[in-house]
């Protein structure tokens, strides 16, 4: 319940993405928010007030000059009630009116009257979005401190492809959580994080790798960002989208990951090594695709050791607070404690990858976190929940 006791005024303007507003209200309420909806006149052409009233469990306001509504929660009261005004979808027309400072209907009036932050989730046809007038309005609004969340690019309801899609409801909920977070646990902390597998080339088309999906590392990146950290994610090849507001540097091999980490580690306060780095790589990388040779039933590949990235970070004289992972199939605790000492880590999160449904390439995981003189179990949960718990634990020790 990351929005418990938070009051969100959701403005809905007239655009086809308004069909997602009902889902957005539901997801905001899932996080404990109290949601009140204000619709523009044209929004009602796309979705009914009754739908939004039912999902928000609050009356929907749409008129500035309605005596009955004003007798309930008047427009100035409503403007003061909100902790955040989120307008999703925000149409080109609504943004033009806001940029001009108009108070021509209830929603635009609330935007002028509120002391709360205002966030817009633009949604419109890509040509309308790219139009110079819309862009100028967006710049004006941004220069006044209005938050612009999105738009995303992709296929549009009208058949066009381009920028102008409203961010998905869950993404918007995430932005609300970040915006309204009480006390960010890692505010201002610079985190460098590795995630995913590495690929060790044999020839131009083949490589040695492992089953790491990167999901745990990406969940940590997101949780750390939510907690206020500045996050740089050094990622092996994965099929995941970069969490909002996270800087991502893509690498393939362990050597590349090592090089990127060492070049950036001096500017970080916290290092988390979550990547499943290949311990060895082929000694020779063939410049041409390796051919089958005659009747040879066997071929020999000689492997050489890769640099141990986290051990190199741990060995620095001015090292950041360093957190490692240990994926083991047996004697989990013993190996984890050994790694904590040997790699000079401040903390290590151990998981038993031999257990079905947790660890590599799954959505759930369970960890036991060890540090000098203590440990904490983080029981089976989805990786994002676990990542948030891990970040809270790291923050407690980091701040000491
Ligand atoms: O020794 P082991 O590979 O099990 O240690 C796991 C921890 O070390 C993880 O945090 C992993 O990201 C890190 N590691 C590394 N570079 C390597 C091997 C592992 O940073 N070459």
Give me the secondary-structure topology:
Blueprint: E1 7-12, H1 21-30, E2 34-39, H2 49-56, H3 67-71, H4 75-81, E3 84-90, H5 92-99, H6 106-113, E4 118-122, H7 126-130, H8 132-143, E5 147-148, E6 152-155, E7 161-165, H9 169-180, E8 190-195, E9 200-201, E10 207-208, H10 215-226, E11 230-235, E12 247-250, H11 254-264, E13 270-273, E14 280-282, E15 303-305, H12 309-314, E16 321-328, H13 332-342, E17 347-352, E18 364-371, E19 374-382, H14 383-398
Parallel strand pairs: 1-2, 1-3, 3-4, 4-5, 8-11, 8-13, 11-12, 13-16, 16-17
Antiparallel strand pairs: 6-7, 9-10, 14-15, 17-18, 18-19
The chain binds cytidine-5'-monophosphate (C5P).
Report on the architecture of this protein.
With 400 residues, the protein is an alpha/beta fold. The longest helix is centred in the last third of the chain and has 16 residues, at 383-398. The protein has 14 helices and 19 strands. Strand 9 (200-201) and strand 10 (207-208) form a beta hairpin. It folds into two domains: 7-179, Rossmann fold, CATH 3.40.50.1950; 190-398, CoaB-like (Rossmann fold), CATH 3.40.50. The protein has helices at residues 21-30, 49-56, 67-71, 75-81, 92-99, 106-113, 126-130, 132-143, 169-180, 215-226, 254-264, 309-314, 332-342, 383-398, and strands at 7-12, 34-39, 84-90, 118-122, 147-148, 152-155, 161-165, 190-195, 200-201, 207-208, 230-235, 247-250, 270-273, 280-282, 303-305, 321-328, 347-352, 364-371, 374-382. The strands form five sheets. The protein has an eight-stranded mixed beta sheet, with helices on both faces. The chain has a five-stranded parallel beta sheet with strand order 2-1-3-4-5, with helices on both faces. It binds cytidine-5'-monophosphate. Cytidine-5'-monophosphate (C5P) binds next to helix 12 and strand 16. Residues 186-396 form the DNA/pantothenate metabolism flavoprotein C-terminal domain. Residues 1-190 are annotated as: Phosphopantothenoylcysteine decarboxylase. Its EC number is 4.1.1.36, 6.3.2.5. InterPro entries: CoaB-like_sf, CoaBC, DNA/pantothenate-metab_flavo_C, Flavin_trans-like, Flavoprotein.
